[in-house]
Amino acid sequence: MSDNRLNTRILLRYDKYSRLMTSDVILQPGEMAVAAFPDTDPSLPPRAFGVKVGDGTRYFDELPWIQAIAADVYEWAKDPTKPVYQATEIQGLAEYIQNISGGGGGGSTSSGSYRIIYDSASNKYILQ
Q1: Where along the chain do its domains lie?
Q2: CB 125 within 8 A of CB 117
Q3: How many Å apart are CA 128 and CA 111, to the nearest integer?
Q4: Average pLDDT, whole number, for the chain?
Q5: Handedness of CA 13, 17, 18, 24 (dihedral sign)
Q6: How far is Cα 92 from Cα 32, in angstroms, rounded to an integer?
Q7: How many C-beta atoms surround the C-beta of residue 50 within 10 A?
Q8: Cα–Cα distance between 5 and 26 in angstroms, integer?
Q9: In the chain, what percentage of residues exceed pLDDT 70?
């Protein structure tokens, strides 16, 4: 039996997300394109990639993104009915909640609105 191997490299279409989404690219059936984003700062490397596969008729922005089930996520996290927890069930929650008006202790503001902030002094995210 003969050994027929091709020593080759396959390159996919690759560009910035914003450029691909505004282009008139029509990918051939089975042709893949990789979009890098965010692409707002060219000095930073991409933090994520999206992939689309062509059908020969639709523009890049009309094609659906490839999706897959994450293998590294626990099964319960994929369940559409997630567990619901009460604040009283979360240990240590009070130390992360501060009233926006400056007082501690977890009360609500007069408007009832909260926000999450990063506290660089404690190196923690705080619900404020």
Answers
A1: 13-62, 75-127
A2: yes
A3: 12
A4: 77
A5: positive
A6: 47
A7: 16
A8: 31
A9: 76
CA 14-17-23 angle, 5° bins: 80
Instruction: Determine contact, residues 31/60, Cβ cutoff 8 Å.
Output: no
Alpha-carbon distance 30 to 54, whole Å? 5
For residue 30, what pLDDT is reported?
92
Which phi and psi (to 5°) does residue 119 adopt? -100, 105
Q: Annotate 90-108 with b (16+ C-beta within 10 A) or e (fewer).
A: eeeeeebbbeeeeeeeeee
Chain Cα centroid distance, residue 110 = 34
Q: What is the length of the chain?
A: 128
CA nearest to 119, candidates 99, 92, 96: 96
User: How many other CB atoms are found less than 10 A from the CB of residue 22?
Assistant: 12
Look up residue 4 and give its two tokens.
């027929």
How sure is the predictor about 90, in pLDDT bands with cuts at 50, 70 and 90? confident
